[in-house]
Amino acid sequence: MTLRLLLPVFCLLACSCGALAQVAPAAPPPVQIEVHLNQPDGLLHPVWANIGHDEPNYTNSPEGQELLRQLARLSPYAFRDRTHNLLTTGNGTPRLKWGSTNAYTLNAAGHPVYDWKIIDRIFDTYRATGIAPYVEIGFMPRALSSHPEPYQSRWPSGPLFTGWSYPPDNYAQWGQLVNRWVRHMATRYGEATVEHWDWEVWNEPDIGYWHGTEAQYNALYDYTAQAVKQALPAAPVGGPATTGPDGKGGAQFLRSFLTHVVSGKNAATGKTGAPLDFISFHAKGITHMADGHAQMDLRHNLEDIAHGFAIVASYPTLRSLPIVISESDPEGCAACAASLHPENSYRNTPQYASYEAELFARSEALAAQYGVHLQGYVTWAFTFPGHPYFYGYRSLATHGIDKPVLNAFRMFGKMQPQRVQAVSSGELSLAALLKTSARSQPDIGVLATRGSHAANILVWNYDDDAVSAASSSVQVRVNGLPMGTPRVRVTQFRIDDHHSDAYTVWLAMGSPQHPTAKQVRELKAAGQLHRLAPPAWIPVRKGNTDVAFTLPRQGVELIRLQWAAPQKR
């Protein structure tokens, strides 16, 4: 064959090979989710219904009050707020990582003066908005600090841990302050109300929040617990609110404290042990930049939780006590803005919402694995009045505009207490997440609950990496609907870049720092929980029905099924 005759053949082969090279890889098979409404799987507790923040005086700001009202309305479950600095000395003017109430001072004769006006404004806000306080007892008033100067924090331009972080120079007087505070709360709000508040002693005493020894913290706990119980015997007292137990310091301090309350000498009473009604510790993930994009580390957050549960489970007389993870977050600095720390860019986006869905499900799973009682975990996020729009603080809202993460809480609030069996072919095992986090592939997980005539199915598509990726096809088979049900009404709610996401809308506006009134209305509307489509009726055959959709990476979907009660004959 001549070269002229061979050329068309070579061209044909080359073109064929090129065409083959450009063929897109076959799409992965759809994720298959099976939900069994007739197979109960225990109760789903509202462990997520807690938030927190450093700045107590933000609580009763207009933005703070609006956010608290939103939280109180989003579910039938009681929402709680934890805040630092409730006993810190000052005039009540907040700044980043700082607040004050001036509850305790000394007069010219050196006698204690108790002033509850600022504290009352904060707690009156809780009562008015329908929020329950999770009361953190701290920090040290200037007049009681063993090292009072310098006192006020100037973070980030100066040291954070100043005179408010030191032990008292008089433990008995500290106990008297706490006792008077609890009695004042009981008088103002009623004993039956206050005795249901958790009273937590201090915050992260294993690091700079406490400039004392472990023994001094144990003494502080003894005097504080005694003061609370003398004022209101039924009020729950707990601690020690240490940092992540995955680290050496947090784990060692937690063990030391638990040993003290079981068998140590009580500094206030001289007896053995101390009252402990709940146990608290903190758990954090890590964020950093990887190959030019932000990357989260869910694994680290879960490891902290697992190690904390393991420590509690190792004390036979304590393992049945409620556990509160009084901070559980993707990283450790709520006031380190993503605008200055790009590794925290998740905060304005749906990725924060999908992370919270993961944390909700996996925290409960770890508690079941270790046989402990998880009462709740606190998302350390609130709002930051007076700062730029979408500046990237770890917050639920900005200038009264809800972020995508707040819509995750709205979804959680729609879940019923009765959990049912649900499995996803796209779900990573707990062991895999604890080993490699969600990086080799996304975690497409599911939680399902039901009531008498409705069910809710939560599905999320979480990945540690903030990168673009193809959406996943999801097919949900719902089994166990009441026999004779001909059809169900399906409503799909969605959080992604195009739904329930005011941040994307704000970016499209050109990121205005002085939005018009019309733009603010648009942003507030965009920040609400959106339906994917109008509700639709779909058929049921032999107690089964199917729902199919595509779920973007970092997207969260809530499917609500409703059906009529069977007709009586």
TrEMBL record:
PROSITE patterns: PROKAR_LIPOPROTEIN (PS51257). One of its GO terms (molecular function) is hydrolase activity, hydrolyzing O-glycosyl compounds. It comes from the Bacteria. The keyword Hydrolase applies. GO terms for biological process: carbohydrate metabolic process. Residues 103-531 form the Glycosyl hydrolases family 39 N-terminal catalytic domain. The keyword Electron transport does not apply. The active site is at E204 (proton donor). Keywords: Glycosidase, Hydrolase, Signal. Residues 1-21 form the signal peptide. InterPro entries: GH, GH39_cat, Glyco_hydro_39, Glycosyl_Hydrolase_39. Belongs to the glycosyl hydrolase 39 family. This is Xylann 1,4-beta-xylosidase. It comes from Acidobacterium capsulatum (strain ATCC 51196 / DSM 11244 / BCRC 80197 / JCM 7670 / NBRC 15755 / NCIMB 13165 / 161).
